[in-house]
User: What shape does this take?
Amino acid sequence: MRQKRAKAYERLMTAYERYFRYRQPYQILIDDAFALNLHRAQLSPQKQCDMVMRSETKIMITQCTMQALYARGPECQPAVDLAKSFERLHECIKSVVGDTNKHRYVIATTNTELRKHLHSIPGIPILHYNRMVIVLEPPSDATSNRIKQIEGEKVSQSVVEKKVLDGQAKEEAGEKPREENSEQPKKKKRKGPKGPNPLAAKKKKPEKSKPQKHDTDKDDKDAPKKKRSRRRNKIGGDSGSADTPTPATA
Assistant: This one.
């Protein structure tokens, strides 16, 4: 198998797992014609299915298919006539799949009518045999539409969850969430004149403290007056004194 095709099959099965909850190992339900084609080509059903599905697989077959295989033999026509009285092969597979494919079967068939019926049911991977190669069919229109529907539901659900979470966060923060039919919004208050920018205003210089003047006059009055000392000349002092007057001669 080419690497490009293998990656495409892997992406396709990843989508089935994501949107339709398929799980590994995949259960592959085969019909009689598919099994006969693999046997004639000498291909191992288990090995080929594992390679195509890029995973482990579990091959399954219905009782109707077993009866159809037993019915095939050298004398084909009598066995075919006998098989007509039994439960139809493809009706049996339809009943197993139902309307929802509850058990998540991968259907391997070469019957055109059965494939057309399975294309109307979303989420069914289909394998068919084509020139010695097992092919995983691309998703049908029903499957693609169902995937788009699931994606749309996820988007709408995420939007609702976001609104709920936003409302809870506002309530925890003490804010009331907005109601759709709320009252008229309050008028905005007009802003008054703004004061000067405190950063741009000049700072006042601190006033220098003036030294206190002492009342010198008052201090002088209150202070005690000093007494003046007078020097008096002594009379009849020492004989050798130069200040003593000499008597005049006759």
Summary: The chain has a mean pLDDT of 76. Strands lie at 26-30, 57-61, 105-108, 126-130, 133-136. The CA atoms of residues 19 and 148 lie 10 Å apart. The first strand starts at residue 26 and ends at 30.
